[in-house]
Amino acid sequence: MATERGTWQLPEAQVKLLLNHAHLGQERHYRTGQVLYEQGSNALGFHLLLEGMVQVSMLTLDGLEVILELMGPNTVLGEGSAFPNTPKFSRAQALTDSRTIEFVLPDMAAVFRDYPEFGAAIFEISSQKLSIMMRRFIHLTSRKPEDRILELLERLSHQLGVPHPDGRLADIYLTHDQIAAMTATTRVTVTRALQRLRHEGQVVEAGRKLVLTSKGQRATLPALGQPVEHR
């Protein structure tokens, strides 16, 4: 496996709450390469990943596969389209042998009524992901691959980061191919863009991982809802 951990992380309290409601779901096992659900399918289930690594991706109209997340243990996937008549907007495939709890809940209104804390957790997780998706969309409209890469590193350093003398270390190893698939560009473009970012002091290498410097953080677009500072 090229990745040591996933690109998404849930707070421990949310994971514990979902595990407390495991009786609402059913344990599933997936072999390496097996698909959990397909893009465009009407599968109602969503998953709490317990073990393994799952790639969540989206196929664009021109056939480009964009990786949305690399999900590691204790993450949720597929919840955004868990309601009836809401097709899956992404595809999930096991990168390693994986184990999940699949929740298939046709009557979500009843679940929200009978288990409000469970429903609130799912709603909160879905809202968090939507916010990140919108932010990524804004950056993906940029023609500069550096902007796309900086947005990805900023998110990873925020969710998975640890302090580093040069800034904040994104504590995950991603190959240039994976970064390219997550920023809708190519491996060659990623390699060149990272060279420019290192030369400008916005990104620093720390072994096989990347550090986003304070200069790199200032270069990213503001969070949704924040005004743009004109310079």
List keywords for this structure.
disordered C terminus, alpha+beta, four-stranded antiparallel β-sheet, 7 helices, globular, 231 residues, 2 domains, Arc Repressor Mutant, subunit A, Jelly Rolls, 12 strands
Q: Mind explaining what this structure looks like?
A:
The chain has 231 residues and is α+β, with helices and mostly antiparallel strands. The protein folds into two domains: 12-139, Jelly Rolls (Sandwich), CATH 2.60.120.10; 144-219, Orthogonal Bundle (Arc Repressor Mutant, subunit A). 36% of the residues lie in helices and 24% in strands. The protein is built from seven helices and twelve strands. The protein has a four-stranded antiparallel β-sheet with strand order 1-8-3-6, with helices on one face. A four-stranded antiparallel β-sheet has the order 2-7-4-5. A four-stranded antiparallel β-sheet has the order 9-10-12-11. A hairpin with a 2-residue loop joins β11 and β12 (209-212).
User: How would you spell out the order of helices and strands?
Assistant: HEEEEEEEEHHHEEHHEEH
The CATH architecture of the largest domain comes to Sandwich
**In percent, how much strand structure appears in the residues?**
15-25%
Q: List the total number of helices.
A: 7
Structure summarized in a few sentences:
The protein is of the alpha+beta class and 231 residues long. The protein has helices at residues 12-20, 108-114, 116-140, 145-160, 176-182, 187-199, 214-219, and strands spanning 26-30, 35-37, 46-51, 54-59, 65-71, 75-77, 91-94, 98-103, 161-164, 167-170, 203-206, 209-212.
